[in-house]
């Protein structure tokens, strides 16, 4: 940074927080999804976008996309009679064989 902006004229408060030389913020710290707008480094899930999680790395936290949710095909005829708990359990175990 010093090579291109030695006096820090173009450095904003977020950049100073990243460098650890200031705690000043440009916006209200209670703003949701502040990491989306580069106002903060995430510390909670609400700092990130929907479908993202705040993940700690070795140096700081970043917003990462969550893996997609895979829909589970449900055969409704197995669930018509809820007294048939054995049938429900067998359906689940057949779909997820690693649970056995």
Please tag this protein with its features.
about 100 residues; two-stranded antiparallel sheet; alpha+beta; 2 domains; single chain
Can you characterise this structure?
- With 100 residues, the chain is an alpha+beta fold.
- The protein has 2 domains: 13-65, no CATH class; 70-100, no CATH class.
- The chain is 18% helix and 10% strand.
- It has 2 helices and 2 strands; from the N terminus they run H-E-E-H.
- The protein has helices at 13-19, 85-95; strands spanning 52-56, 61-65.
- It has a two-stranded antiparallel ribbon with strand order 1-2.
- A hairpin with a 4-residue loop joins strand 1 (52-56) and strand 2.
- The protein is elongated, with a radius of gyration of 24 Å.
Through-space gap between termini: 56 Å
Taking strands numbered 1, 2, ... along the chain, how are they ordered across the largest sheet? 1-2
How many domains comprise the coordinates?
2
Structural class: alpha+beta
Strand segment tally: 2
Oligomer: single chain
Q: How is the main sheet built?
A: 2 strands, antiparallel
What's the helix count? 2
Task: Sum up the overall morphology in one term.
Answer: elongated
| Unreliable runs | none
The radius of gyration is 24 Å
TL;DR of this structure?
By secondary structure, the chain is of the alpha+beta class. It folds into 2 domains: 13-65, no CATH class; 70-100, no CATH class.
